[in-house]
């Protein structure tokens, strides 16, 4: 699905009765099947944009559309993954992944098929009956990703999904994400504060200014796919990361 933000602005009411402009105006297009990252200073409105695309926040001005259909609320074709895994401690890995399918009223046979399709992709097939207390942080995030993937979304929104992980685990699960994305080819919009992560994962990086967040750079990542960690030492990677840093420093 193609995502188009047209003259988008979002403002919030303050305690003193005033208005705070958080985002915009901002206009961008994300092509179907591409992997795009939002990157910018804290408070630049990255998560607000994600919430608008998810249908959880209404624009104050402008619009966001999916395949030319204006977003007015949550959409079953769009799935959102947060930084916290938010697993239910009393449910097994299998049951946590199956949860959104249960909520959607999908039958047991189809739920079972979808969960068992996702488990081996994420390396969780031997942990399907484990509970969250027995999982590492990286495994918990894989379960969270599985809970998103079983919904078979056409758009995948990632709001700093690996921010709480240590560096080595973050690298490993980032590559896992790329492998899964290569299989499903959803349109991905991801929020991160990590420049190297953005360059390693993305086709494009949209750099936002200080609040109110405006688009100050749209940087193409000239790296071949599939990606691998050795790319971080290449000239193309280093130059792209430098361009992103320069854009942020001049935001």
* CATH architecture label: 3-Layer(aba) Sandwich
Task: Please identify the top-level CATH class.
Answer: Alpha Beta
Order of helical and strand elements: EEEHEEEHHHEHEHEEH
User: Mean pLDDT, rounded to whole units?
Assistant: 90
Report the uncertain regions: none
Structural class: alpha/beta
Number of strands: 10
* Distance between the amino and carboxyl termini: 30 Å
Shape: globular
Q: State the share of residues found in helices, binned by percent.
A: 25-40%
CATH fold-type name: Rossmann fold
Number of helices: 7
Whole-number total of structural domains: 1
- Calculate Rg over CA atoms: 18 Å
Assign the CATH superfamily: P-loop containing nucleotide triphosphate hydrolases
Instruction: Describe the sheet with the most strands.
Output: 6 strands, mixed
Widest β-sheet, arrangement of strands: 6-7-8-3-9-10
Please report which band the strand proportion falls in: under 5%, 5-15%, 15-25%, 25-35%, 35-45% or over 45%: 15-25%
Description:
This protein is α/β, with parallel strands linked by helices and 251 residues long. The protein has one domain (3-249): Rossmann fold (3-Layer(aba) Sandwich). Helix content is 34%, strand content 24%. The chain contains seven helices and ten strands. It has helices at residues 46-53, 93-103, 108-121, 137-149, 167-184, 195-201, 235-249; strands spanning 3-13, 19-30, 35-39, 61-66, 69-70, 78-81, 155-159, 187-191, 204-208, 215-220. Strands 6-7-8-3-9-10 form a six-stranded mixed β-sheet, sandwiched between helices. A four-stranded antiparallel β-sheet has the order 2-1-4-5, covered by helices on one side. Helix 2 crosses helix 3, helix 2 runs parallel beside helix 4 and helix 6 crosses helix 7 (235-249). The relative contact order is 0.18.
